[in-house]
Amino acid sequence: IPRALDIDDLTKAGTLKTEAGAEIIVEVSKDQKQIRLLNANIMLPKEVAQNGILYPLDAILEPTKTTAAAA
After folding, report:
1. Are 36 and 42 in contact (CB under 8 A)?
2. 3-state SS assignment for residue 40
3. In degrees to the nearest 10, what's the CA dihedral of 4, 29, 17, 41?
4. Where do runs of H (alpha helix) occur along 14-59?
5. What averages of pLDDT result for each successive group of 10 residues across the chain (71 residues)?
6. Which of 39, 44, 49, 50 is most open to solvent, judged by the fewest CB atoms within 10 Å of its CB?
7. Which sign does the torsion angle of CA 38, 60, 32, 30 carry?
8. What pLDDT sits at residue 67?
9. Cβ 55 vs Cβ 11: under 8 Å
10. Cα(4)–Cα(1) distance, rounded to whole angstroms?
């Protein structure tokens, strides 16, 4: 993702575009306590770094076949 996104940005995003051009669907629960990216849940707390925000995930995000073929 080309810029730092806080939790509010993620809950409003709908989709995110990676540097490779792939789109990742952002799913947010109705109570906004759970956020999913593809097959992974975002876990808190986050880590703020000099070059962005790191969110731990409970699964590995893998590129889709169409994304891998385009790269």
Report:
1. yes
2. strand
3. 70
4. none
5. 78 85 88 88 86 89 60 50
6. 50
7. positive
8. 47
9. no
10. 8
Give the C-alpha separation, 40 to 58, whole Å: 6
The contacts of residue 53 (CB under 8 Å, 6+ apart) are 4, 5, 6, 46, 47
- According to DSSP, the β-strands at 15-17 and 40-41 are unpaired
* Coil, strand or helix at 22: coil
Q: Measure the CA dihedral 6/66/69/54, to 10°.
A: 10
What pTM value is reported for the model?
0.67
Residues 6+ apart with CB under 8 A from 46: 7, 53, 54, 55, 56
Question: How far from 2 is each of 16, 32, 33, CA to CA, in Å?
Answer: 10, 23, 24
